[in-house]
Amino acid sequence: MSTDNPTIANEVNPFFQLLSDAANQGALQRLILSKYIGAEEALKRLVVRPLLLREVESLSFVYSYQTRDITRNHPRTEGLALLATLLGSDFKSAHLFTQQEEVQLNITKKGKAQLHRRASAASAEVSHQHDREKRRFVPLERPFLVELGVTDRQHQLIPAMSRKWKQINKFIEVFQRAFDASPLQGADSIEVYDFGSGKGYLTFAIHDFLRHSRQLAAEVTGVELRQPLINLCTTAAKRLGLEGLTFRAGDVRHYTPARLDVMIALHACDTATDHAIHMGIRSNAAIIMCAPCCHKEVRPQMHNPAVLQPMLQYGVHQGQEAEMVTDALRALLLEANGYDTQVFEFVSLEHTSKNKMILAVRRNQPGDAQPVLAQIAALKQFYGIREQCLESLLLGRPDSPDTSCPGNCGCQGL
Ligand SMILES: C[S@@+](CC[C@H](N)C(=O)[O-])C[C@H]1O[C@@H](n2cnc3c(N)ncnc32)[C@H](O)[C@@H]1O
After folding, report:
1. Which of 175, 199, 224 has the most ligand 1 atoms within 8 A of CB, as the residue to mutate?
2. Do 207 and 106 lie in a common domain?
């Protein structure tokens, strides 16, 4: 090392060792030398990067002057020897970036050397990715993801599908938690229905989770109004040779499965969600999972007290209020019918605007429905709501007007 000052050498030597180890092990990203105090006029800094030059491991030195840059390349050993002469003498500051860490060496005006080390941003990102990897509930290698166009043939995520991918993962994460807390734990066979299955992303995902991850004899059925989507999903399931995965054309309002253990309805439009929940309750499903959208039924019925008018003069607030009231009534009706119910956001708004989930897991004992029914009645009275589809269905009243739509309402959760 070019310094004779033993105090400085105490820090410069280990810095140089880290630098040469990184360069020799292929982990060097770059070295920046600055605070130049040598003889060359107008030299500002020197940036060193690894380089393969005609098959020779080399170091590229870029000298930055006031108005120009000069590049000189050296074979690695020669370059390191040159750096040894510059560190701690001509340059008072050195910043080393490797794959694993960032190391900063500074010589103060009082001639003291300081060394700071920290994990590199790149390695933090790698461990972040590793964490994310661990948090994945559906491995990218699963064949159905290729078939549905979420990943390519090399099992790399297709960038345009990253939103869908997050939704699939979150969905399986939530389902897994509910499943493990439900009476289905330990069941030999399970019947799952996904109503309004659309392009089948979640239907395939839940089938994969139950059959592949949990090795259960699950029968999963996607029910969908639109025949072309049924054909698409059926073809994909056949190509993958999947057993226990079926797609049927049907309307959630009239569909009657012989047995139903898990009822899923994600982004079924407006009152289609009520019909799906009703069918789940009627069939004594252990898990009911829905993400409602298009809350059209209750909004025109709502009368708000005068004190709320200034707030509700803004249309967006009226929509939010109607959504909250509708989903609160649905959740309370589930509670009254023997389900532990949660309402929460299941993917952040960044990924989809329809991010509310109602998750209900059947209790072993139904509990006393009366206090909850009284809360429902009070809420309806407060807002002047005459009719809510799920309640009407549970009371056996004729269907409320059909406000469901076959996915053409702009809520393309696909
Ligand atoms: C917004 S998409 C959601 C698709 C899928 N569940 C998802 O989250 O990715 C809603 C789907 O529900 C279907 N749908 C709407 N009303 C329905 C009904 N009454 N019965 C069955 N399917 C219905 C639509 O055709 C559409 O494919």
Report:
1. 224
2. no
Q: Are residues 162 and 50 in the same domain?
A: no
Residues 205 and 121 occupy one common structural domain: no
pTM of the model: 0.68
91 and 161 in a single domain? The answer is: no
Count of structural domains within the chain: 2
299 and 186 within one domain: yes
How deeply is 280 buried, as exposed, middle or buried, from its count of CB atoms within 10 A (0-12, 13-18, 19+)?
buried
pLDDT digits (tens, 9 = 90+) for 49-100: 988 777 788 999 999 988 888 989 999 999 999 999 998 788 999 999 988 8
Are the CB atoms for 33 and 89 separated by under 8 Å? no
Mutate to test the pocket of ligand 1, among 163, 175, 195, 229 (most ligand atoms within 8 A of CB): 195
Q: Identify the residues whose C-beta falls under 6 Å from ligand 1.
A: 195-198, 201-202, 223-226, 229, 251-253, 266-269, 272, 404, 406-407, 411-414
15-26: per-residue pLDDT in tens?
Answer: 999 999 999 988
* Number of other residues whose CB lies within 10 A of the CB of residue 139: 12
Domain that holds residue 350: 136-394
Ligand 1 center to 283 CA (angstroms): 20
Which run of H or of E encompasses 381?
helix 370-383
Residue 42 C-beta-side C-alpha neighbours within 13 Å? 7
- Distances in Å between the alpha carbon of 22 and those of 25, 62, 86, 95, 343? 5, 19, 18, 13, 51
Neighbouring residues of 142: CB distance < 8 A, sequence distance ≥ 6: 208, 212
What letter does residue 409 receive in the DSSP assignment?
Answer: S
